[in-house]
């Protein structure tokens, strides 16, 4: 069978890494196989496995960070609570684009949302000794489960695919009624499916979080990237959907990585709702000198992890948030290219017998964005991921994200203009070599 890359090259590389089941290959392993196969074959890979921004960093952030460094800020430790200007701008940004009020004291800079989730997991899992388990609304970011594995914290998970709309509440409650859930975690828009939970679904999550006293960790890594509606005008609806309208038990994780393409400086803000920030949990108070939840998060967890967040990067984040809130910088317009790429890529795949796995948000087609999901008739996730490597296309299996569906996550961030034609030719050959029985 003719393929752009000799099968022996790919198979030997996979075997050399000791990967028994390619469906369970990590992002880094898939990336390594793709890089080596590209080198050995001389055939350019269309790389869709890594969720790395493919755009230049926001210049307003770069300029502010360079100025801070030139002004000598690098010699000073940052305040563990965060740069006051950043805390203020984060509070304004949340009001402008989410439409909720969070006091500046609850907006705490972190070394990217990765550190934000780690510190949040630590705080939530210690708040009440009876609640020792985290619940994921999957699919999701695999590394968050790795974080819990590192901590030794238990977790439960379910695939939201079959539990949208009115089915979500009863499914959630089936876990919450055991009263061992300390936190509920999801991303919105979702990595990898690009599912966007609706206001009604978020309202139900908020209601149940209040009823069962669980904390909702809302991962907003892909902030305002539901390109079906314009979420770019500050202080005007429509706003980024959020559970914060429906419960006091929430933490919002806002990242600089995707919205501002500022991934390399590891900067984000964890925004803790006012009532949760000041809440005293007996178990936390006993362990941490009577401190409330928010101060345990910052002065204990973050202090122990990193003694604060990169000082100069905080100046960058403050400048980007200020420019966006003041209407001087339309960050959403910058990242809209991801949606345009997804639209073109989906057309090519679907033209050659692929299908979109997570294809709808209730009664609406799924948005085009940073990620989407594909499947192929008769192929498991592992088979499809492995087979596509022969055609110079790399993507990760949905299994690694907690999904129960057969298919792959496709990331649009590194697609270049000349690769659409390459993909068209390769997927036409793929369909020819893998005929679908339509009977």
Report on this structure:
With 439 residues, this protein is of the alpha/beta class. It contains 16 helices and 15 strands. It has helices at 7-16, 27-41, 59-70, 84-97, 112-127, 142-151, 168-176, 199-211, 274-278, 282-287, 293-306, 311-325, 331-335, 337-351, 381-389, 419-433, and strands at residues 46-47, 107-110, 133-138, 154-159, 181-187, 215-220, 250-255, 268-272, 355-356, 360-361, 364-365, 371-375, 393-394, 396-397, 408-411. The protein has a 7-stranded mixed sheet with strand order 2-8-7-6-5-3-4, with helices on both faces. A 4-stranded antiparallel sheet has the order 9-12-15-14, covered by helices on one side. It has a two-stranded parallel sheet with strand order 1-13. Helix 5 packs across helix 6. The longest helix is centred in the first third of the chain and has 16 residues, at 112-127. It is globular and about 70 Å long. The mean pLDDT is 95.
What does the secondary structure layout of this molecule look like, with pairings?
Layout: H1 7-16, H2 27-41, E1 46-47, H3 59-70, H4 84-97, E2 107-110, H5 112-127, E3 133-138, H6 142-151, E4 154-159, H7 168-176, E5 181-187, H8 199-211, E6 215-220, E7 250-255, E8 268-272, H9 274-278, H10 282-287, H11 293-306, H12 311-325, H13 331-335, H14 337-351, E9 355-356, E10 360-361, E11 364-365, E12 371-375, H15 381-389, E13 393-394, E14 396-397, E15 408-411, H16 419-433
Parallel strand pairs: 1-13, 3-4, 3-5, 5-6, 6-7
Antiparallel strand pairs: 2-8, 7-8, 9-12, 10-11, 12-15, 14-15
Helix pairs in contact: 1-2, 3-12, 4-12, 5-6, 5-11, 7-8, 14-16
